[in-house]
Records
---
Amino acid sequence: MKELYLRLCMSSVFSAVMQKPLLKHFADYAKSTSTDEKIKAYAAFVAEIYAHGNSLTQLVFNLVCEDENVYIKSRAHKKPISEEISQAVRHEILNFQELAALTPKAFAEDLGVDYVSPFYSEKWDFQELYEKRILNVDKYGYGIFSSYCMFRLSDDKAIEPIISSDKTTIDKFVGYEEEREKIVANTVAFLECRPAANALLCGDAGTGKSSTVKAVANEFFDKGLRLIELRKDQLHHLPYVMGKINDNPLKFIIFIDDLSFNRSDDNFSMLKAALEGSASAKADNAVIYATSNRRHIIKESFSDREGNDVHVNDTLQETLSLSERFGLVVLFTKPNKKLYLDIVHELAKRNKIDMDIGELDVRAEAFALRRGSRSARCAEQFIDSLM
């Protein structure tokens, strides 16, 4: 164990992996001089495995794949790599492969005990699997983008994964097939490097606009699509985000949820620049998908129309035309009674709710009346209330 640890310590290309909790616990184990210390370190080592499932092999491989190092970035951008770096990668990956194949039995024998907390491990060819990921880096990605689908921008401008992201999938939706297909078709064109548009999903609340965008991201994760969500107050960071992902082999949806502006909003011009293709606010591998309850995005009052601008019509056109800069605008409207009940019936069927159709319809309509209107969200909430 100690000899393996020392070989891992010599990692240069994958040096950042050695700072991960799993490797730190293994280091504590290998360096411990007493059985008590080893047992505590082993317990922490297995606890880290359990936190990510049950497989040591899968966890170690994920850590290797998530590492954003000089080798994978050079391979992704087809830059020349020295033989020395290539040799180091081959040697280091074999060490991580050996770590990933360790068994509870090996630890038990090393500790001189009959039982240790179990975990799963197996023998994988890390070199072959890692090379496969590099050859398909436009689908797998590297760094944090290799393991997660959705990301957010933190207050300190770090792009961080959303660990418990929405797992909604397209096949879970009922209704709005025509609207959703427009978003899917545009996304497919984007992934195939064909002309694709920035998209605005607008309309009534509770109709599935945000869920549609997230479902599309989940649907095409294996095709190399990732989603980065920005709050409206973070739009001034848009050039920074675009710069961070510009040379990444993956494709990105920049997602802005519940978008609306006042006329004096400073973020208005930043989004406008991005939609118009400004070099500082646009990346070739990104599209902007936004949702809004307002068709024209801008909050407008009658006083705005009676302002003191000399050319008031020009000012109004500037503010109201932002939505027109989205190449694709998809309108989601409140469902009529038939669609609302169709959604209720399908959700009831999926959730195995055994109720007379007539009674179900009456109760569904009463539920919508109490909520103030029909919507897909209302139908889902009604079904949840029956479970």
---
Amino acid sequence: MTQTPQSVPDVPIDEAALVADLLDLLRIPSVSGTAAELDVQEYLVERWRTEDLDVDRWDIDVAALSRDPQFPGMEVERSAAVGVTATLAGDGTGPVLLFNGHTDVVPPGDLDAWTGDPFIPRRMTVDGRDRIVGRGACDMKAGVAAMWTAVRAVKDAGIPLRGSVVLAPVSGEEDGGLGTFALLRHGVTADMCVVPEPTAMDIIPANGGALTFRLTVRGLATHASRRTEGVSAIEKLYPVLLALQSLEERRNAEVDVVMQRWPLAYPLSIGTVQAGDWASTVPDLLTAEGRLGVALGETNEEARTALEAAVAAVCATDPWLAEHPVEVTWWGGQFASGRTPADSPVIGLVSGVHRGLHGRDPEVYGGPYGSDLRLLMGLGGIPTVQYGPGDAAAAHAPDEWVDVDEVTDTARGLVRLILQVCG
């Protein structure tokens, strides 16, 4: 039995330590696929050992995992990765509560768009609010710092627990979910999980999926002065783009009720286009890479089939493309959609904790992006919600930021959740 909110003792958090830990994490430039992605994991291993948590550290066999039929894919090359858990153990008579958070971050992009070095974090006051700015501040090192702070607060308070709390920092989330997949294959399980991704402290129990694809469009090269005697691969992409826009409209005409807050629940977008090798040559080859949203309840295979059919249909209407059809390949991150059932206790428990702190219920809705929730719930059978600090619109953006008050409030909420579930 879990404790009622009224019976949970008030345990303070160390706000100064929380901020210091977050700043330290942000100084590690743990971009997906770089050596620093391992460094941040090793940093947490050493810190958590000094705090006398039960730490399990293992080398992830990336090559072996990549051959697993259920491997979620990668978009950057890795030859090594590190798995980590840190446990605050109870007496074994209560549930296991898992906190999962990724430590890898996306590249900073155009440095001129930042007001400072992306990996030298800084505090700023904006509209009277205290913010921390740096790559990964929102997505999601603030959440990692909050879950760490919550566990430390409970441990330092000396409150005996029946259940156990497990911290699981993971790498490779941004490009597929390597770290969480490795965590599950390592045998880690729990009765429920909170992923403190940036949700502005609302509850997200479901995510649409996201599949990475590549289009290869072939043309016929000739000198630009005789362009009518060639076929431009760039021009042949245009009708394909129109067909994909039409497909996106159809796939978003009716969406699940938990996704209806979004103007576009399941986006379909092209992110990169490469074509041609000489300005005065008609380009004979184009590659475009993009992302296809997967609807709740839809399989990855069903989503792939829909896109492939749309591309094939438009090719059939064009004499050149009918003879030289656009090739569709699937690569990189393959995020299935995922959903925790509405009656799962974790949703009510987190809602109750939030209500106790803020005097109101959080909103509950689905996210339009892929995440590790689908692995934790779908492969691990662990009821999972996302609940954490930050506005997802700031993620992956220049001057990425998080509100300090939201980070501390999240930590306080996770303390209460620990005590309610495991106390």
